[in-house]
Amino acid sequence: MTSQPSLLSRVENGIAWVTLNRTEQRNALNIPTLKALIDVLDGHEADPAVRVLVLTGNGKGFCAGADVAEWADAERRGILETYGWTETAHQLMNCLHGFSKPTIAAINGIAVGAGMDLTLCCDFRLAAQSARFKAGYTSMAYSPDAGASWHLPRLIGLEQSKRLLFLDEIWSADRALATGLVSEVCADEALIAQTMELATRLASGPTFAFAQTKVLIRDGARRSLAEQLAAEQAAGLLCGRSQDGVEALRAAVEKRTPHFIGQ
Known about the structure:
This protein is of the alpha/beta class. The protein folds into two domains: about 1-205, 2-enoyl-CoA Hydratase, Chain A, domain 1 (Alpha-Beta Complex), CATH 3.90.226.10; about 205-255. The protein has eleven helices and ten strands. Keywords: Lyase.
């Protein structure tokens, strides 16, 4: 296990488990934690042994968002607008959203502000029954600054997004499930097991094809259908030429389960 003061990371059976570990601060994101997450993601992106990434939090909460104490200190020193939190957070959100391998947020407890935004950057969101979601911006007289205004309308629609952002309500796990903010809710004690089951299924799959699919979905919104079909054809050629593509065809002919290696 590789550990840092605010972060834990380990890789087991192709699954990278990244755990926020500032329990006394409810895993709030200060600049050192943001930078540590970026470094860990970059390392796992480059590591062929990593086929799936899981992001979760230690303690009773997933992530309380920005570290308000760090913000208050920056304001006292007159550097709130220039000390770099927002720029670093944006780098992290882009890194997680663009991660080529499947990503899962295992959401335990509260996810507020940038903590909620971290979950929105992941491909899958599994919530414990005790999970709670809060945008956290307008009650502090701020507008969203870590991607919520981009992700939420795509996930839950315009009106629900405005309700969550304008009224700054606290949403339960069940409400998050009903609106499409998460894909699954489970008992608190089952969260890790349920996450492990999904991560294991993904890790055994054709992760090269997953990566191509992620890019197609991400970029498709700004293309016409004709442009998207051309992109699908190009991606399909890459998949067909991959080792996994060859293995899938051979396994189909031989009537056996394919063994994918992610290449």
